[in-house]
Amino acid sequence: MITLTALAWVPPFAQGLVRDLRVRWALEEAGVPYGVRLLDAADQSSAEYRRLQPFGQVPALCDGDIELFESGAIVLHIGARSEVLLPTDPDQRTRAVTWLLAALNTVEVPVQQLAAIDLFHATKEWSRQRRPEVEASVRNRLADLEAWLGDRDYLEQRFTAGDLMMTSVLRILRHTDIVARMPTLAAYQARCEARPAFQKALADQMAAFAATEAEREQRGAA
Ligand SMILES: N[C@@H](CCC(=O)N[C@@H](CS)C(=O)NCC(=O)O)C(=O)O
Asked: How many CB atoms lie within 10 A of CB 137?
């Protein structure tokens, strides 16, 4: 049995972005059933949780005897069970892994810097000074990605875990119009997000937050 650890609640600006979504999506693509353990903020720093996730973050995953953290590692672990995520042809498989790593190491780094500036530090003087340079580096990365995509539907011949991760990273920019103004990239993101597995994963993450809100309201009213 697979158990995914996710957060019980986050503020609306983060709902639909929390990184367990990537894992839920991979599990849905692979058709692998799973249960979810929801963490409160206090649980994140507990010694018990730190044994599972050394940094106290989500996602984490237990699959039988193996305990995993880092969304990339978890998606690769699930991908090993699913031709949909990782092709069996060794070269195609390596290309899919390469794109997953490019999403995390090359694209997510500046994208996350921009999100942190806009969502957590917007009123600080240093962020006002730093933002133009970070936005420019995001735009450069995305222009290169758009050039690679050209008229392809996916990063390689077909959808893989690389597209799953790249789309998950592009979503982080939803508070900006950067992707919307890049038609090839916007169409690519929409194509990947239209997949039933993504829609199910997103609905399930949002349902968990709604359930926590309802429970908190009920407790408040009692
Ligand atoms: N590199 C990690 C990043 C995980 C991460 O940043 N998780 C966020 C939620 S999206 C988190 O748990 N934040 C709370 C914290 O850092 O305390 C991964 O991809 O799994």
From this structure: 15
Atom of ligand 1 nearest to the CA of 17: 10
The partner residues of 63 in beta bridges, in order of sequence, read 2, 66
Domain CATH for 78: 3.40.30.10
- Answer yes or no: do 111 and 161 share one domain: yes
How many domains in the chain? 2
Q: Which atom of ligand 1 is nearest to the CA of 19?
A: 10
| pTM of the model as a whole | 0.97
Residue 112 in contact with ligand 1 by CB distance below 6 A? no
Contact between residue 58 and residue 209 where contact means Cβ atoms under 8 Å apart: no
- Give yes or no for residue 71 CB within 6 A of ligand 1: yes
Whether the CB of 16 sits within 6 Å of ligand 1: no
Q: What is the pLDDT of residues 99-131, one digit of tens each?
A: 999 999 999 999 999 999 999 999 999 999 999
Domain of 163, in residue numbers: 90-196
> Is residue 63 domain-shared with residue 139, that is, in the same domain?
no
Q: How far, in Å, from the CA of 71 to the mean position of ligand 1? A: 9
* 52 vs 33: CA distance, rounded Å: 21
Q: Is the CB of 15 under 6 A from ligand 1?
A: no
Tally Cβ neighbours within 10 Å of residue 212: 16
* 28-73 pLDDT tens trace: 999 999 999 999 988 999 999 999 999 999 999 999 999 999 999 9
